[in-house]
Amino acid sequence: MDARPMTYQPKSDFMQVMMERGFIADCTDPEGLDSAARNGLTAYIGYDATASSLHVGHLVNVMMLRWLQRTGGRPITLMGGGTTKVGDPSFRADERPLLSSAQIESNIAGMKRVFAKYLDYDDGGGGALMVDNAEWLDGLNYLSFLRDIGRHFSVNRMLSFESVKSRLDREQSLSFLEFNYMILQAYDFLELHRRYGCVLQMGGSDQWGNIVNGIDLARRVDDAHVFGLTTPLLTTSDGRKMGKSQQGAVWLNADMLSPYEFWQYWRNTTDADVERFARLYTELPLDECRKLGALGGSEINAAKIVLANEVTTLCHGRDAAVQAEATAREVFEHGGSGDALPTLELSAGDVADGISIVQVLVRAGLAKSGKEARRLIAENGARLDDAPLTDPGLVLDAGAFAAPLKLSAGRKRHALVTLAAR
């Protein structure tokens, strides 16, 4: 099944939002999907439980589900309690580490906290659904599954999908376990269609082959007409992958990344990305998105603050966004310490024999390694209480923490370091 770019002018609210705000890369049947969406449709996106939080790279898909619900549709967040035990091989160089059932359950619990902020899971009948594919995958009879489902898949065709082909072309191993993933994902679509009337699977452009498999399976087995829609591969204007920062993944759970750091990620958006990110990651009217993107000079910084506030409000709440902006103003404009900065709390044992400033920089998340911390100091990029750090051999004892210390790496990354009360 070939991808079909959106040249059709949609009539449904859902498809208009998807097209106007830039969510669509390809769609299997734009006219058919638009017609179905006019009466309200059920759609899903699948999320394997490989970490205890979603990150910014997932956020565009979460926003699609949110807009689906806002325009009268019913979103399903499909948790991959079953498929995580296999691991999606798409565009990976090696096999994912296998997780225990307990770790998968723990990760799903952490991810649920994010979805609850964006979607209404009201039990009244029209709310979003959260479903775990372990419900049907864990109990499959292998021989029956091969006979009833496996016979509809051509190995020749599966090998032609880019996600598999690229792995084999690089002569990298692809296990039989991973090769089964695309069959299981296709079966998910069939089950969701049977159980909940789900007619649309959405996902990133790297999921096109998996989505098409599900559409074909639903047609072959149940003679069902279902749809697929993918989003563009999102990178920043300077070529970086969305969801990554200098410190690593930009997590959506506050216990893995503070709301202040999350706010700063959006505040540091490059000028060229402001309008596009406002369209994708906020609910601001399109006219306002265009106005923000058209600003230049110092005014673009005000636009970035609006962007950061809007995205942070959706993810962490309005109070967290207001506090993050206030902290940023205190730190950058007034030279304050910023009580809401990310905080490293050391124990008495940590400093009993003194602790090196290099180690503190690493533990505070301002450097990835001791080598990086020493280079940061050598290049005059580190500060302690706003004074330049020049000695990588500096050792701090308990007395140094009589008041919280403010550590900085460059102009935009800061952390507080405190000593726990005995």
List keywords for this structure.
422 residues; alpha/beta; Rossmann fold; Tyrosyl-Transfer RNA Synthetase; Structural Genomics Hypothetical 15.5 Kd Protein In mrcA-pckA Intergenic Region, Chain A; 3 domains; six-stranded mixed sheet; 15 strands; 44% helix; aminoacyl-trna synthetase
Question: Overview of this structure, please?
Answer:
The chain is α/β, with parallel strands linked by helices and 422 residues long. The chain contains 18 helices and 15 strands. It has 3 domains: 13-231, Rossmann fold, CATH 3.40.50.620; 258-332, Orthogonal Bundle (Tyrosyl-Transfer RNA Synthetase), CATH 1.10.240.10; 343-419, Structural Genomics Hypothetical 15.5 Kd Protein In mrcA-pckA Intergenic Region, Chain A (Roll), CATH 3.10.290. The protein has helices at 13-20, 30-37, 56-70, 101-118, 134-137, 142-148, 155-160, 162-169, 176-179, 181-196, 208-222, 259-267, 274-281, 286-294, 299-316, 318-332, 357-363, 370-378; strands spanning 26-27, 42-48, 74-80, 129-132, 200-204, 227-231, 244-245, 248-249, 343-346, 355-356, 382-384, 387-388, 395-396, 405-409, 413-419. 44% of the residues lie in helices and 14% in strands. It has a 6-stranded mixed sheet with strand order 1-6-5-2-3-4, sandwiched between helices. The protein has a 5-stranded mixed sheet with strand order 9-15-14-11-12.
